[in-house]
Design brief:
Layout lengths: L5 E5 L4 H14 L2 E8 L7 H9 L5 E5 L1 H14 L16 H15 L3 E3 L8 H12 L4 E3 L10 H10 L15 E4 L4 E4 L29 E8 L2 E5 L2 E2 L2 H14 L4 E7 L5 E7 L1 H17 L2 H19 L6 H13 L5 E8 L2 E8 L7 H4 L12 H18 L6
Parallel strand pairs: 1-2, 1-4, 2-3, 4-5
Antiparallel strand pairs: 6-7, 7-12, 8-9, 8-13, 9-10, 11-12, 13-14
Helix pairs in contact: 1-6, 3-7, 4-5, 7-8, 9-10
Amino acid sequence: MSDINKVVLAYSGGLDTSVILKWLQETYQCEVVTFTADIGQGEELEPAREKARKMGVREIYIDDLREEFARDFVFPMFRANAIYEGEYLLGTSIARPLISKRLIEIANETGADAIAHGATGKGNDQVRFELGAYALKPGIKVIAPWREWDLLSRDKLMDYCEKHDIPVEMKRGKKSPYSMDANLLHISYEGGNLEDPWSEAEEDMWRWSVAPEAAPDTPTYVELEYRKGDIVAIDGEAMTPAQVIEHLNRVAGANGIGRLDIVENRYVGMKSRGCYETPGGTVMLRAHRAIESLTLDREVAHLKDELMPKYAEIIYNGYWWSPERRMLQAMIDESQSVVNGLVRVKLYKGAVTVVGRKSDDSLFDEKIATFDDDAGAYDQKDAEGFIKLNALRLRIAANKDRSPL
């Protein structure tokens, strides 16, 4: 361990990372640099600075990464309409490559030998953090205390704090039984009664949305303006990517939108039950597909849909910085050059309904699509030959006694 002189720790100031900070100092006899990221989790982060200083940390980074997170990670992902296993909008997954990137940048700035994180040895985050780190700095050393120490319970962590005079904030009132992770895009819940897949999530667990049945009886209409696949304005007001997500979270959450309760397949091999709130992201996905339905060529749209599950899996498993993700992203971004226009959605009691869409780049032609007289724009007699050509292989098979009946 003598080759570890300085470590950059992803640090929140909570129980786990406070113990990790001291454990690194004690076990590796090294200097620790702390890095705390503001990616929209909605918590006061300055107390982390004072806690780190009291524990002897000299280099303390607290970075506001909300705009970078929204612009360079969330928005590119939504251009792909990415969903993991048909439901999960990847709120936790998409935050990890940014944290890995900043850990490596700080390691380079401070001359650190290693990075450290507080992810456990059972989850996906350890994989995501470390794959990202190795992709960006192949020779970096990674320290994952949960895979090394024996402090595997809250009681042991508390005993360690008492022994080493580590300040632990004891919040008054009822402690949440859930393990929660929040950022600009979503908040997740695991543990507690959720470990039983049959047990319904308690209503007081949810933080960002009202229950659909308690949402207003009057629908809310929202108009989203798209430019090259990204939302650039809401109801005529220009907004940055982070402002877009924050605004949609408030409006959609107030209408009971964005709750999800799933059992997912973790990359490490186990199934996990979790609940998620992604109000703004739920609206963004529906609206983006609506503007694409007008502007994308059929085969381009279908190819995107075929590739999307792979793209989502790449992000979920931690390969954001991989060559395959970058290749897919280049293709996806190229498709978005024509994804411009307006989408109007209705938000009502948990539902997002697209009620209007228009674009100067629209491929929708009323003269051809109309059920009225199309004045020769489309000759319906042409359909007969089209059908017969496409039926040819079916007719040949049937003539060979290969009919399905």
